[in-house]
Each structure stands twice: as structure tokens, then as C-alpha cells.
Amino acid sequence: MSKFAEPMTRLIDELKKLPGIGSKTAQRLAFHILRSSDDDAEALAGAVRDVKANLRLCSVCNNITDVDPCVYCTNPTRNQKLVCVVAITCCTDRFPLCTEWDRNNCESEIF
Ligand SMILES: [Zn+2]
After folding, report:
1. How far apart are CA 26 and CA 73, in angstroms?
2. What is the third-level CATH fold of 6-54?
3. Which of 51, 47, 28, 27 is nearest to 39 (CA)?
4. How many Å lie between the centroid of ligand 1 and the Cα of residue 95?
5. Long-range contacts of the stretch 92-99 (C-beta < 8 A, 24+)
6. What's the pLDDT tens digit per position in 39-83?
7. Which of 2, 15, 34, 71 is the most buried (most CB within 10 A)?
8. Are 69 and 59 in contact (CB under 8 A)?
9. Does a cis peptide bond (omega within 30 degrees of 0) precede residue 96?
10. Global pTM?
């Protein structure tokens, strides 16, 4: 028998599936969600649903996007012959800010 009510146990079990989240952290997050306002809890649930419903891979470059082709592939100033390979997809949002290759700022994320 779990020491928590079934809905709390279910939330903890789902949170434990996230990378880097163990039992204690999952419990802390679950209690945080339980104490949060209905609006904040619904915003979190909605954000999770929205990510799953509206994000896909760009058909041109495989970037995670909500529009296909993605903003990078539809940018008319983009050099279509230049390929930038990143190790972590979440880093691609930094590239529009770069005006030129800056190895000192990017080398930990770029291979
Ligand atoms: Zn793309």
C-alpha cells in the first residue's frame, strides 16, 4: 500500500519517468504541484499537452518546430549550402543571435 493517495502516487510515478528525476524529487515536485494554484497546475498540464500535440520535426532539417519547414529553413537570408550540426537540439535557438562563428562561446555545444 502506497503512503500517498492514488492520484498523488500516479503523479509521482509519472514525474519519476522524467530524466534526472528520482523518487524524492518527484515527491517534491508533486507536492509543489498540489500546493500550486489551479491556474498554474492547468498551465503546466496544458504546456505538456501542447508540446505533444503541436511540435514535430522539420521536414528539411529535423529541427523541433511548430511550423514546417521551421523558421531557420524559411529564413531567406540562410545559406542553404551551409550545415550546422548541433549535439543538443535545445541549443539551436542560440544560432540566430550569432553573427559569425564564435568558437569561444559555442564550442561546448557544437561538434
Ligand atoms: Zn528546418
Report:
1. 38
2. Helicase, Ruva Protein; domain 3 (1.10.8)
3. 47
4. 13
5. 92/63, 96/72
6. 999 999 999 999 999 999 999 888 889 999 999 889 998 887 777
7. 15
8. yes
9. no
10. 0.67
**Residue linked to cell 519519476:** 16
Residue 99 CA to ligand 1 center (angstroms) comes to 19
Q: Which residue's entry shows cell 509519472?
A: 14
Query: Tell me, what's the pLDDT at 42?
Result: 98
**Mean pLDDT computed over 83-107:** 55
Domain definitions of the chain by residue range: 6-54
Query: What is the CA(108)–ligand 1 centre distance, in A?
Result: 22
Q: Cell match 500546493: residue? A: 35
The three state secondary structure string of 43-92 is HHHHHHHHHHHHCEECCCCCCEECCCCCCCCCCCCCCCCCCCCECCHHHH
Ligand 1 mean position to 65 CA, how many Å? Answer: 8
